Amino acid sequence: MKLMKTEDAVGQVLCHDITQIIKGVTKDAVFRKGHIITEEDIPVLLSVGKDNIYIWEKDDTMLHENEAAQILYDMCKNDHMHPSDVKEGKIELIADCDGLLKVDREKLKKVNSLGEMMIATRHGDTYVKKGDKLAGTRIIPLVIKKEKMETAQAVCSDGPILTLKPFHKKKFAVLTTGNEVYYHRIEDTFTPVIQEKLAEFGAEMIFHEVYDDDASKITDGCRRAMEAGADLVFCTGGMSVDPDDKTPLAIKNTGARIVSYGAPVLPGAMFLLAYAENGTPIVGLPGCVMYSKRTIFDLVLPRLIADDEVTAEELAGLGEGGLCLNCKVCTFPNCGFGKGR
């Protein structure tokens, strides 16, 4: 590109959008890239502070901001997402379906560390809906060296930065445990909470039984729930370390692989996650899920619905950001809860 006096630019081709900002009225381009400047355009350009203007000169070693933004978009894009129109050198990625957004944080950091370019995303492991913005891309200058963009592309040579895992229709089981519920001393107020949360994902409860504090019965119930076709098994009650709390032992006795008993999240420290031999998640839910608006259950559930296996290392990483502030107006998932990684 070439810089020249605005008054001398009649007939030249703009190499970037010209933005006009009027507080409370508009913030948009008055002229778009590729516009051929006319005599009538000169006063308008001067009114937005453009005493000098960049005009386009083709250079095979350089890329225009729109071309570079397209490359950044291509490095991010994956199935179930589409681009916005390019505007002022920026392209956004939009979700095509409800799902779980995954971000390759290492690749994202490497690209953003190269300088003169940026990719901004939502937090990874976030529940997003169809039409939500996932990320935005652009370069910082008006033009950038083609060689530098090739370096950025190499970072993503083995796969894109973003993945959107669609949610799946699930069938689930709830095993309510505890003598106090089994003998009708108190009402089961836990199961309706689970049903409500799973309903957000279109899941169907196909199995529900109530057990006293007998580990062998709970173990048998977990197995029968899976035989009945449950894709997810939730056990409520009996999750603390009291001697008469049998649920963790019962889940272990199914032969399931215990990922973690305990998690650095409040509310939700006594959370248990296991995977049965057939891959079915078996989850021990602490009592806080029944009465707290947001808990570790809200962090893990979208991943279970999207068939995104959760590891012990990932659960351990929830510590930073794992303290829910119980805000008067809850904005989850658009808040810092569970997003410190």
UniProtKB/TrEMBL annotation:
One of its GO terms (biological process) is Mo-molybdopterin cofactor biosynthetic process. It comes from the Bacteria. PANTHER family: MOLYBDOPTERIN BIOSYNTHESIS PROTEIN, MOLYBDOPTERIN MOLYBDENUMTRANSFERASE. Catalyzes the insertion of molybdate into adenylated molybdopterin with the concomitant release of AMP. This is Molybdopterin molybdenumtransferase. GO terms for molecular function: metal ion binding; molybdopterin molybdotransferase activity. GO terms for cellular component: cytosol. Pathway: Cofactor biosynthesis; molybdopterin biosynthesis. It comes from Fusicatenibacter saccharivorans.
